[in-house]
Amino acid sequence: MAHKEYNLDFFKESANGDVKFMKYILNLTASELRRYFDQLIYALQKGQIEQAKRAQHKLKPHLEALQASELAMLISRMISDSDNISNELLQAFQQKAMLLCDEILQAANDER
Q: Is 86 left (phi over 0), alpha (psi -120 to 50) or beta?
């Protein structure tokens, strides 16, 4: 992600200026995203489309709050093309997803 493909405004507003709470929210969000991304990737690799759709459903509110629409669209595309999904696409998605989580954790560490 050369430029930030997300927005933390929702989380900043939710924290209402409480830095400790903001750090908590960001750390929790990154942890949940990692778990749901892992579930999604595993389900797609195993051809478990219903499981993939459940992971997508869990990811949706997080990605909407982050305004990470590009990642949400990529997930939709991978699920709709699940019969022909390539390992390269899955790996590219995984890298992009983990980078998002890393950037959220970095933002949590940068909060003062």
A: beta
4 found inside a domain? no
Question: Residue 24 sits in which domain range?
Answer: 9-110
Q: What is the CATH number of the domain that holds 49?
A: 1.20.120
Residue 65 lies in a domain: yes
Phi, psi of 30 (to 5 degrees): -60, -40
Q: Is residue 3 part of a domain?
A: no
pLDDT at 2 over 70: no
pLDDT digits (tens, 9 = 90+) for 23-58: 999 999 999 999 999 999 999 999 999 999 999 999
Alpha carbon distance 98, 33 (integer Å): 9
Q: Nearest Cα to 68, choosing from 38, 40, 33?
A: 33
**Within the chain, where are the H helices?**
9-15, 19-46, 49-66, 69-80, 87-110
Dihedral sign of CA atoms 88, 83, 35, 109 in order: positive
The number of folded domains in the chain is 1
